[in-house]
Amino acid sequence: MDKLHLDKHISQQFDSELEDLKSQVLEMGGMVEQQIIDAVESLESADSKLAEKVMRIEDEIDLREVALDEACMTVLACRQPAASDLRMVLTVTKMTRDLERMGDEAQKIAKMAISLTQDGAAPGGYEEVRHMGTQVQNMVHSVLDAFARFDVEKALNVAKADKQVDREYKSAMREIVTYMMEDPRSIGRVMNILWALRSLERIGDHTRNLAEHIIFLVKGLDVRHVTVSEIERKIQKSQ
């Protein structure tokens, strides 16, 4: 299993700064992970208070993104990192951007939950939300663990899992259309479920981005915009 071992520097402060960046990303990731869990639960259980909590936390996630960007700029300006250290800083900036967008999508799910508590439950789609929600939550948890361990194999598995989420989304869309055709009066409520599923699919996409950032960090490989099979081949060639 490939691991990244950041160089030890004469300046212990530099080592501490890099480790702090990693810790802050993991803290932000943990907040986003919980936000996604709560957003899905708020929709399933029609819990408007929990949905409101999800929306409030989004402000804290935005602040963390800004703080991490500033910390990365300071490291770049003062330390002029190279090689794996530079990749670490660049990866942090990319990961925080994706994490913030994942938080935005969780907030959208919470808004759909509030709409459903006000307008009444949709006639279906909740099982699909629950199933996709579980898949996405597992992806997020795994990708954060992959970052904590600098684990390329685990990151690759997360990228593979995104394909299954995409398939589940397409299948769920067919079910949603069926509900709307059977009861046109429920279209407004069913659309809330549809947008929640769309947000979950987007969270899966952003989680795959996180996995790709980790592969770049550890292996120095740019694997954006290529298939999972091509990513796997690139990793094998780099062994």
Automatic annotation (TrEMBL):
All residue ranges annotated as the PhoU domain in the record: 25-112, 129-213
Principal location: cytoplasm
Entry-linked InterPro entries: PhoU, PhoU-like_sf, PhoU_dom
Presence of keyword Cytoplasm: yes
Cytoplasm is among the record's keywords: yes
NCBIfam families named in the record: phoU_full
Cited function: Plays a role in the regulation of phosphate uptake.
Family per similarity comment: Belongs to the PhoU family.
Name this protein carries in UniProt: Phosphate-specific transport system accessory protein PhoU
Organism: Fluctibacter halophilus
Phylogenetic classification of the source organism: Bacteria, Pseudomonadati, Pseudomonadota, Gammaproteobacteria, Alteromonadales
Gene that this sequence comes from: phoU
